[in-house]
């Protein structure tokens, strides 16, 4: 747990990654840092910037929502709209996802989407999380995550939704589906995606312990494919993309679908139940009480 | 085969691990050392000793049934009763399994449970083997195997039924599902558990050749998670357990169930057929003849 | 792609491994080198030579169809007949497959079986490809591929259909299911066999990029089991086979079936649909046009 807390400091939002005791058989059920807290602003400036190079057919999608690219409903909606536009654009064949922020790729789901919200709103939020993954994991484009900072929980899900992962060779950056550390449970489709990426046993250990892997450790278990110096993450992604685009699109797309269809179909045919599960969990009095205490603690720290 | 026989010596019960020729398409069908032979004693002294430290919530289960912790019906029954007690005890969150014997963790199933017994009794025995695995693989406790000696066949099954495996760094100790070497076949749920642990290809090689891995080789393929000096196996297990117990129980338990439920359900829904298969195989005249010859050979050696 | 073309040179049939542009969303759809082109000869000399050593029970099957052991309908028919004979021969327990040709194990499916042929004939051809894999992957014999040269596409399928793979330690030799590079798609049962061998993630990368692995890289991902000097490939296969035959046949066979049955059954229950898919793809005007242009290019090169 100390490790998790240390990460919170790294993300630069002290106190965000704390823990709350709620009822459980043995001890604590905690919430964080898969749930990151954005400083609210009412700015309508885009959280995502997309540049499509029509000469290469490669789009770079930059996440630029400070402080930590939290996955809020607004963020996810903007992300999905951009993804869909690129998917429909025949001149776009490859997508690179990266962050404009220092030290963080994405800190995962936004806690404010889950506190004091109506079940309807929580359901809408979870549907957007599903949508992000469905669009990304099933994309016809070649997709590369240029992971230039830490990438816990939802940020990790986004990364393993891509075809290839290049991470900054910085042992301070970590990546992983660490939900369990925080008392919550990664849903089955997070799990399936992780198993597809690192195999059953590494996924089992990783999920049961809620492990965050340093970049070098992530490479060892195959959670990322390649480490490069921090200032070469994007350029390496561009070089790698040209290799992916040398493969005939149609054959690559059919092959990708053959590899991923079963995993995607499993969520598609359980989508409503998965939303119901999430909403029923997150709207529990005990969980909401914990979130409130947690937020109050944050406020008192700021004061 | 020489290797297997060498292991028998290591276990300290000469002649126990021998082979019998029975009918087969090509050459031999053999029995051992997944079937180990206990020296009979009518002692009612417990085969298992459990110490629960209520301050840490960690129980240590010591197998203490000389010479080789054979999995007899009595042993398995005692094992399951102890497991169930701990499972029901809310003060117990973690379980470490180890052996009090020198050089052996467990040598696997007891041959005497399969010779000259009625089909009913054989079925009862097999049901106890299933029960041991079902209880262990599906336990809500965090479970660590502290493998301080060799662990073939049933001993290996017990190990891979845990959440984590720490083995003595002694190249003389071996572990593996070596049933095939002996002319018998690991049932599908042994196979599923192994595939979940080391992946499909390593499991295929391992099961088709009935391989026993030395401790270092077992680490290489991921059959165990960690090697430590022999005198540090238990203390390392204790240290590791504290990391597992730092994870909120409820989230870890749901995650574990998500990872293992499908494998467990497969046995649950085929349990009777699996018993029938085992009984029909083991009560065959040819197999029983082989067992008799084998036991007579053992007696003549003793004389 | 340069890499693929370089391989074509290695195979010694310049121009055979070229590419054809056909319609696709983005750029090229290519054909080769999974489709190799045999120089036609009307020779009725056998394409395959089998030597069974009745003292050891080991058969060596030598592929001897120059220049590149293309898998034509004739070749596959001869291969399957030989396999079936050995399967029925109770004195034969092990099979080693190797090549008499320099530098190539097998270059894969024969392009001439797919150009200008009737749908019926194409279907007959594809059925023979299925039959080769079904017989090999499900063989009761212990099977070892002694890969003494390059082994792309269909050659790789043949290799991963065996129980064990020993490859010449020559970085110029490559192996892989590279269909995607060429604009075609490995069918689901190629994919399943690869996943069973190297795991899901390595298979995904391998199939989406149509990767050919050098011998050392193939060893790293587990696509082959062992590298030995080129002149020791066959002798090592013989030594290894004796270890496989030390395992009781019956137990090994049941275990092998337990590991592979599900994958085999998937093709068996979709066999006709798989043939229909192939025929419908390969007889498309666009594909046939591409094949014609390709063959004309080859002719003009020869002139």
TrEMBL record, chains A, B, C:
Is the Ligase keyword given for this protein? Answer: no
- What's the superkingdom here? Eukaryota
Gene Ontology biological process terms from the UniProt entry = fatty acid beta-oxidation
| EC number(s) reported in the record | 5.3.3.8
Tell where it localizes.
Mitochondrion matrix
> What pathway does this protein act in?
Lipid metabolism; fatty acid beta-oxidation
Listed under catalytic activity are: (2E)-tetradecenoyl-CoA = (3Z)-tetradecenoyl-CoA; (3Z)-hexenoyl-CoA = (2E)-hexenoyl-CoA; (3Z)-dodecenoyl-CoA = (2E)-dodecenoyl-CoA; a (3E)-enoyl-CoA = a 4-saturated (2E)-enoyl-CoA
User: What are the recorded GO MF terms, alphabetically?
Assistant: delta(3)-delta(2)-enoyl-CoA isomerase activity
Is Mitochondrion a UniProt keyword of this protein? yes
Q: Which Gene3D superfamilies match?
A: 2-enoyl-CoA Hydratase, Chain A, domain 1, 6.10.250.170
Write down the InterPro entries for this protein, in alphabetical order.
ClpP/crotonase-like_dom_sf, Enoyl-CoA_hyd/isom_CS, Enoyl-CoA_hydra/iso
Quote the PROSITE patterns the UniProt record gives: ENOYL_COA_HYDRATASE (PS00166)
Instruction: Give any Gene Ontology cellular component.
Output: mitochondrial matrix
Family annotation (PANTHER family): ENOYL-COA DELTA ISOMERASE 1, MITOCHONDRIAL, ENOYL-COA HYDRATASE-RELATED
Q: Which family does it belong to?
A: Belongs to the enoyl-CoA hydratase/isomerase family.
Self-association and partners: Homotrimer.
The task this protein performs is described as: Key enzyme of fatty acid beta-oxidation. Able to isomerize both 3-cis (3Z) and 3-trans (3E) double bonds into the 2-trans (2E) form in a range of enoyl-CoA species, with a preference for (3Z)-enoyl-CoAs over (3E)-enoyl-CoAs. The catalytic efficiency of this enzyme is not affected by the fatty acyl chain length.
Protein name in the entry: Enoyl-CoA delta isomerase 1, mitochondrial
């Amino acid at each position: 747990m100390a490790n998790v807390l240390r990460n919170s400091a790294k993300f630069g939002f002290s106190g965000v990654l704390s823990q709350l005791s709620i009822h459980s058989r043995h001890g604590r059920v905690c919430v964080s840092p898969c749930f990151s807290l954005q400083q609210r602003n009412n700015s309508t400036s885009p959280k995502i910037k997309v540049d499509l190079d029509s000469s290469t057919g490669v789009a770079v999608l930059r996440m630029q929502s400070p402080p930590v690219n939290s996955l809020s409903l607004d963020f996810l909606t903007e992300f999905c709209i951009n993804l869909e536009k690129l998917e429909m654009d025949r001149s776009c064949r490859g997508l690179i996802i990266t962050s404009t922020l220092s030290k963080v790729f994405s800190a995962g789901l936004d806690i404010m989407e889950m506190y004091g919200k109506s079940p309807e709103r929580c359901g809408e939020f979870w549907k957007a999380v599903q949508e992000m993954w469905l669009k990304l994991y099933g994309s016809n484009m070649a997709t590369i995550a240029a992971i230039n900072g830490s990438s816990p929980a939802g940020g990790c899900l986004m990364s393993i939704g891509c075809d290839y992962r290049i991470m900054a060779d910085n042992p301070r950056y970590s990546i992983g589906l660490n939900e369990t550390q925080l008392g919550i449970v990664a849903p089955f489709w997070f799990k399936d995606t992780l198993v597809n990426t690192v195999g059953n046993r590494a996924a089992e250990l990783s999920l049961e312990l809620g492990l965050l892997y340093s970049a070098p450790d992530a490479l060892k278990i195959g959670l990322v494919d390649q480490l490069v110096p921090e200032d070469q993450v994007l350029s390496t992604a561009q070089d790698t993309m040209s290799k992916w685009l040398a493969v005939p699109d149609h054959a690559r797309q059919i092959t990708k679908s053959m590899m991923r269809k079963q995993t995607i179909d499993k969520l598609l045919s359980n989508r409503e139940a998965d939303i119901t599960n999430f909403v029923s969990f997150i709207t529990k009095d005990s969980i909401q009480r914990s979130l409130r205490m947690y937020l109050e603690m944050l406020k008192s720290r700021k004061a």
